[in-house]
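Quick one, tokens below. Sequence please?
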């Protein structure tokens, strides 16, 4: 479904403050200016990668994939991303190539397999933690599990597999693909399941009790909360 090498090639900056680093647009829409705050001529979409060139106060001069150069507000850019290792049962927070923190996590009852369909009390094995490349689709500060970062599961990759295996309809597949393309919440009510989150109330003991979510201790998700924004990339690997 994915390779870590491709993922790192897209997202990693050489260091948190490197002028040669690769960042991404962390807001829904950012404007590219000819000069700081003047002469806007291009709109950049969320998660669009940009190369940092030089810094001028609260502005970065950047280059887009298409070679356009200009200034973007520094607050609109980020190189923060999250990696979850199911094998190690740890969450790793990065700024570019730099590991910032890591935390123990609780997962679903079968941490050795990818999620393919909705779980239930009758089939708790299907409460698996999904694998793949995701983004934070929403932040819920009033979660029943303290705080929650909602992921965009099911992704287009999961939807394609679900369509090929006859679990979802073509219309459901298209709705999931369109949601991913526009960084919206995907349909959560299909046979593939949904509402996979990184949330609080974890034990810190790597216990597998969730319904497919990644659970951290409350004090650990408090560390993530101000750093992670809607659109932040999340890699969940086996």
């Amino acid at each position: 479904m994915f390779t870590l090498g491709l993922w790192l090639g897209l997202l990693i900056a050489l260091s948190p403050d490197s002028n040669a680093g690769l960042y991404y647009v962390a807001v829904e829409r950012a404007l590219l200016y000819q000069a700081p705050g003047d002469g806007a001529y291009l709109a950049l979409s969320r998660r669009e990668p940009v190369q940092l060139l030089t810094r001028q106060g609260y502005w970065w001069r950047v280059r887009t994939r298409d070679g356009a150069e200009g200034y973007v507000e520094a607050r609109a850019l980020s190189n923060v991303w999250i990696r979850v290792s199911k094998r190690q049962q740890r969450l790793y927070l990065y700024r570019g190539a730099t590991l910032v923190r890591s935390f123990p996590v609780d997962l679903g009852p079968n941490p050795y397999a990818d999620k393919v369909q909705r779980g239930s009390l009758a089939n708790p094995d299907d409460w698996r933690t999904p694998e793949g490349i995701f983004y934070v689709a929403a932040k819920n500060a009033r979660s029943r599990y303290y705080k929650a970062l909602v992921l965009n599961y099911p992704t287009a990759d999961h939807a394609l597999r679900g369509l090929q295996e006859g679990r979802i309809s073509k219309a459901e597949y298209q709705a999931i693909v369109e949601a991913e393309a526009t960084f919206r919440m995907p349909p959560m009510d299909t046979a593939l399941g949904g509402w996979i989150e990184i949330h609080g109330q974890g034990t810190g003991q790597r216990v597998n009790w969730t319904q497919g979510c990644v659970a951290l201790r409350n004090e650990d998700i408090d560390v993530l909360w101000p750093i992670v924004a809607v659109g932040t990339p999340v890699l969940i690997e086996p």
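The chain is about 15% helix and 35% strand. The domain at 17-78 is CATH 2.30.30.40 (SH3 type barrels.).
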